[in-house]
Design a protein that fits this description.
Blueprint (H helix, E strand, L loop, with lengths): L2 E6 L1 H5 L12 E2 L2 E2 H4 L2 H6 L1 H17 L4 H8 L5 E6 L5 H5 L4 E3 L2 E8 L11 E2 L18 E5 L9 H9 L3 E5 L20 E5 L12 E4 L3 H15 L2
Helix pairs in contact: 5-8
Length: 235
């Protein structure tokens, strides 16, 4: 089977009713991202940060995978599919995708807030949507925080993502503005033999190398047409 790598961003989940990370004013659900999405925010007001992510988690649990998620999962019948996502939701998994790499973490998991935990591989499933600062703690006694990569933190899974992209036969970028680094650099890692596509309402040649075919539409509409084309090309 050919290796199909899908790199998804916030536009992928927007059709499921999940807010994109920030709008043009630098806000996320009316919060300044510096107050809820940085290590400094956690240090100064962990209760606010915890409440904010509890609400995001509640929203994600209430959301459902959209048709684009489902189409990507269905392509596993024809390709070896690897999903790499910037999104912190688990909609790819709930749609049925078996191989999903979360670059920015997974909000359904928690990790320690203690020193040196940035690169931990110890994650704790969250039962429901609430984490409690006083009740939910790691074995060392530190409060659990969302397993989310905040601004100013390293992206531990990036090297793994690069290796996956460099081995792709087909590569689809979907719903990403390609403005968040280092992960936006993945578009430059595809091999010369790879066939690449960029699906986004604002997709344009200025954001990706000339190797990409830009498809200016939504995630669902783009995947509906591209999926059919990819399967036809197998015959």
């Amino acid at each position: 089977m050919k290796k199909l790598v899908v790199f998804s961003g916030a536009g992928m989940s927007a059709e499921s009713g999940i807010s994109t990370f920030r709008d043009h004013q630098g806000l996320w659900e009316n919060h300044d991202i510096q107050q809820v999405a940085t290590p400094q925010a956690w240090a100064s007001d962990p209760a606010l940060v915890q409440r904010f992510y509890n609400e995001r988690r509640k929203n994600i649990l209430e959301a459902q995978p959209n048709q684009a998620h489902q189409i990507i999962a269905a392509l596993e019948s024809h390709f070896h599919v690897q999903v790499i996502t910037q999104n912190i939701d688990d909609l790819h998994e709930r749609a049925g995708s078996q191989q999903v790499l979360h670059l920015h973490g997974n909000i359904r998991l928690a990790r320690s807030s203690g020193p040196g935990s940035e690169y931990t591989t110890d994650f704790y499933p969250i039962d429901g949507w609430r984490l409690d600062l006083q009740r939910d703690k790691c074995p060392a006694g530190y409060p659990l925080r969302p397993h989310v990569v905040w601004f100013g933190e390293a992206v531990p899974a990036y090297d793994q993502a690069v290796a996956l992209v460099q081995d792709a036969d087909l590569f689809i970028v979907i719903g990403s503005t390609l403005t968040v680094y280092p992960v936006a650099g993945l578009v430059h890692e595809i091999p010369a033999s790879c066939t690449a596509y960029y699906i986004d309402p604002r997709a344009n040649d200025a954001r990706v190398p000339s190797q990409y075919q830009c498809i200016q539409t939504t995630a669902t509409a783009g995947m509906q047409s591209l999926s059919d084309q990819l399967i036809r090309d197998l015959t």
